[in-house]
Amino acid sequence: MSALPAEPRRAGLLARFRQDAFWYRQRGAVLSFAVLAAMLVLVAAVVPGTFYSATNLSNLAGQLAPLFLVSLGQTFVLLGAGFDLSVGAVISLSSAILTLDLADPVKIPLAFAAAATVGLVNGWGCVHLRVHPIIMTLATSSIVQGLALILLPTPGGVAPGLLVHLASGTFMGLPAGFYWIVAGTAAAIWLVHGTTYGVGLYATGQNPQAAWMSGIEAPRIRILTYVISSLMAALAGAYLTGRLASGDPNVGSALGLDSVLGAALGGTLLSGGVGGPIGTIAGVLIIGVLNNGLNLAGVSPYYQFVVKGSMLVLAVSLFRRKEAGL
Amino acid sequence: MQRGCVKDVMAATAPLIEVESLSKSFGAVRALQDMALAGYAGKVHAVMGENGAGKSTLMKLLSGVFRPDTGSIRLRGAEMAFHHPRDAQKAGISTIFQEFSLLPNLSVAENLFLGRERQDGRRLGVAEIRRRTREALAALDLRIDPDRRVGSLSVGHQQMVEIAKGVLADASVFIFDEPTAALASHEVETLFALIRRLAGNGKVIFYISHRLSEIFAICDDITIMKDGRFVRTVATAETDVDEVIQGMVGRPIEELFEPRAETLGPVLLKAESLVGEAAPKPLSIEIRAGEIVGIAGLEGQGQQELMRLIAGFAPARAGALTLADRRIEGLSARRRMAAGIGFVPENRKDDGLFLSLDIGANMATAEIARRRLLGWVPGMGARIAEIMRQLAVKAPNARTPVVDLSGGNQQKVVLGRWLMAGARVLLCEEPTRGVDVGAKREIYRQLRNFAGQGRGVLVTSRELPELIGLCDRLLVIRNGELVAETMAREATEDDLLRSALPAAESEAA
Questions:
Q1: Could you give the CA distance from residue A298 to residue B380 in angstroms, rounded to a whole number?
Q2: What is the pLDDT of residues B136-177, one digit of tens each?
Q3: CATH topology for A24-318?
Q4: Which residues of B, range 129-148, sit inside 8 Å of A by Cβ?
Q5: I need a labelling partner for A198 at 20 to 30 A (CA). Which of A190, B64, B239, B388 fits?
Q6: Closest by Cβ to B115, choosing from A1, A21, A216
Q7: pTM attached to this predicted model
């Protein structure tokens, strides 16, 4: 009985991204961090003093926290080969619920329970009713946005004191938003890279049938991605409500598509199974630095939409699945 | 393991696993009817039957992928009801699936422990998983980095990882579904040693394979299935190859096929050193009028690339392609079709048919494509009816949606399309895939008729007996090269396999 020849060992750094499973799934993140670094150097050259001022960076953290949270949530859905367009509406709904005329211990859990329900409905529709994720979440998005407007027709209401406290000011010299970002990111990274749920998620996103045959509860995993995404959206809504100290039924509308942008720019494939929250950090920071840099350089915000859209096309074509896989 | 082993030996007189009157239907198709099977500890038990005989359905019922309609599965006397593959795994049934169930984006270690991470409710550490992966791989003489991404491994090594994954489970029943299809001969030896070791430890092994030599080399008992039913179980020592084949086919194999061509016409299609992007090695083929030529080979050796290069879906880079004295290598796929090349793709439902359209529309597409936009085709309806009658398509009329037809009738519709378009050479990938035995015979007859009208057919198939019975001449493809040629009447499965298998030392990649 002769021993088989060993598989050729990896040679060189590039081969590592092809052969090593972890690095293969994170290859987009590496590129995104490189782009981010280049941008940070660029803004240092164009708007040196203003960008790296403490005030600006602190503002940036405050502005980016909601996008961080929803993009991280969206990353889960994309990893599971899904798509969640409803996160913007969920943010708005949670803002509306959090400013209802109810006691804080009632409305805070209520906002998260409502978000979890939306996630369950999304997941159930996509997985069990086999509705296409875009259609399913577009539909729930419309319903949820409607509910938000019914509960809170115009901006206003009183935010829970706890959230106002948690979402504003500084702690140990760092802005509150920074802690929300760190907490959300740490939770997402732990779920994806530190639990069996994460391995199951990569497996399910690649091939739900093969995952199922390997004993993975693929349907449950996919439904959970939508629940996580909705809960992250509710968290973003809670942050925004606290920061504004009042509710706004349209506060999330811009964040829905931006969450996809943040995840996609971070190297998470829309076809599932490749990418992850580490890359999303870079993806969101790229959007943030870009917006902020263009603002500081005095470029009209309308151009930012054009730039963001172009970047999405660029990222998706750059990070497309290179191999058909197995 | 030690304790389980003793228990297994003590129970050796009663079957460890027993299947009784198991049935499963998919829609109107009865995939399995009243199946019986008994596995004894320490025995390697072959399950044989033609493609579509129900072997895979049976194994998927045993492994919890499907749920039976009726009947029972008993393990150590206890009735089992599997709702999920994991239920079967927990009960001690481990399956090495024929289609890879590996995830290409995960590492070897992640794949091996997928769905099995939780033992005693605790999560295994990364170091523990790596260590146990190395052990499982070592048992198969494999030296692969546990962190290596599965999608970057060679097909042979992926299959070995698949086997390692199945063996890793502390199971009492192991199901091997065509495990050697992608393996080189020395890998097969390693696998056999492993199977003998498992049997020696009192495990039940179900072994599914088309390769008779393997069955007779390693199995103690053989259960034969046909058309979803149990035929018989025999001890390997008390039977021979002819008897097994007879049981599988239900009749001597010759009766399935039409007589071969007696005389051949001039060369119809000639490829000379044809090279394409996906087929970098020059390919030369001749097909004569009246001839059916078969391409044999292991899976993924370039059959598809060859067919698609001739059909014109991939541009030729060099070489010449001649159809009845007309050079066509520079033509697009559409113009080659107009010139007389018909293509029947392997994946009928995705590439070959418009399922929601009716029979008439599906048959007319190639003819319509041959004509100018908005071209008027007189008498189309009558011709469709004529071809349906000729091919004996079982449907009330031409307006029946194709989605309602059986696999065999769908295949006839694809054939009808090219009859209608007047194709002179038909390229046919896997003509009888997913088709029952009766329809197979009909398709063989139609292909022979087609060739008999002075046309040519080029066929690829995974099933060697089909190629030998159907074709006049066979070519063997290996790693993108045509490596052997033989007249079908002189061909044997063993010889074809030997040419098709990679030489032992060339498998390093």
A1: 68
A2: 888 778 888 898 999 888 777 888 888 888 888 788 999 998
A3: ABC transporter involved in vitamin B12 uptake, BtuC (1.10.3470)
A4: 141-145, 147-148
A5: B64
A6: A216
A7: 0.76
